[in-house]
Specification:
9 strands, Rossmann fold, single chain, 10 helices
Length: about 280
């Protein structure tokens, strides 16, 4: 059953099912090959690593959900060092296929080595590892094992019967969603409803991490213009508070609009489900 309201009638921005035919996974992955030239990557990596370093003793170690991950393994690479199992979900089959190729070590799979090395350097800096060696091969092995154990799944915020969002409550120690909800949700009402569904999936004292563009209305890929729901610090904070989250922390970085997106910043957000749920 589709619960998408007719919110973008007359709008030339692509959305929902058009991702299945118009989104180009290979072109999207090319962006990661030049991550060192995109300042937002440094900000995301620094803040993501900091969340895990600063909350290490508070976090559970069993299961995590990455919701709407696209073909990117940036966040899961860090997640896999914290939990045994990662359920990796996305709307687009081609994105899941790209991840499956990496898990199988297919020769044609995207090479994440440079980005993974950069993440490791940031982790060593923040965790004060000193002379202790942190090997990329060990982290990659843990990532493959976590993804195999958790599995790859399709997801859709616009479907009331989404098997991921409708899953067993209180099952994940960590839920992470990066650059997804503002792309998938066509209204702020649906955005808030989805945050509440993610809340239900978390264990008590579980961690939610969200990464969003700020005040963005579109992004361009392969010369196609895709819809983005504009959100900002206030929008996200309200959604988290209404869902019941506590210890909400939002880090923002300003950025100018460019040729592929019109947002004015990037946000990395983390919040916890209360130890005793209301």
């Amino acid at each position: 059953m589709d619960i998408v309201p007719d919110a973008v009638t007359g709008d030339d921005r692509l959305h929902s099912e058009e991702y299945l035919t118009q989104f180009n996974t290979d072109n999207y992955l090319c962006m990661y090959a030049f991550f060192e030239f995109v300042p937002l990557f440094d900000f995301i990596i620094e803040k993501l690593v900091r969340i895990f370093v600063e909350n290490k003793s508070r976090l559970g170690h069993d299961r995590a959900l990455e919701f709407g991950a696209g073909p990117s393994l940036l966040a899961s690479f860090v997640l896999a060092q914290q939990v045994k199992s990662i359920r990796f979900s996305d709307y687009t089959p081609s994105n899941l296929a790209a991840v499956a190729d990496w898990i199988k070590e297919d020769p044609g799979a995207h090479d994440w080595s440079d980005l993974f090395n950069h993440i490791l350097q940031e982790y060593q800096r923040q965790a004060n590892c000193g002379s202790q060696s942190v090997k990329r091969s060990d982290w990659e092995k843990q990532l493959r094992e976590a993804l195999k154990l958790g599995g790859l799944s399709t997801c859709d915020v616009n479907a009331v019967d989404c098997p991921v969002l409708g899953g067993e409550p209180n099952q994940y120690d960590i839920v992470l969603s990066s650059m997804c909800l503002e792309v998938a949700c066509v209204t702020h009402h649906l955005f808030k409803a989805t945050v509440k569904r993610l809340y239900a999936l978390l264990k008590a004292d579980g961690l939610l991490i969200l990464i969003h563009g700020r005040n963005q209305t579109y992004h361009i890929l392969n010369d196609r213009r895709f819809f983005v729901l504009p959100v900002n610090e206030i929008t996200v904070s309200e959604a988290l508070q209404e869902a019941g989250f506590v210890d909400i922390h939002i880090e923002s970085r300003d950025q100018e609009a460019d040729a592929v997106a019109d947002g004015d910043g990037i946000m990395v957000i983390n919040a916890f489900k209360p130890k005793i749920s209301a």
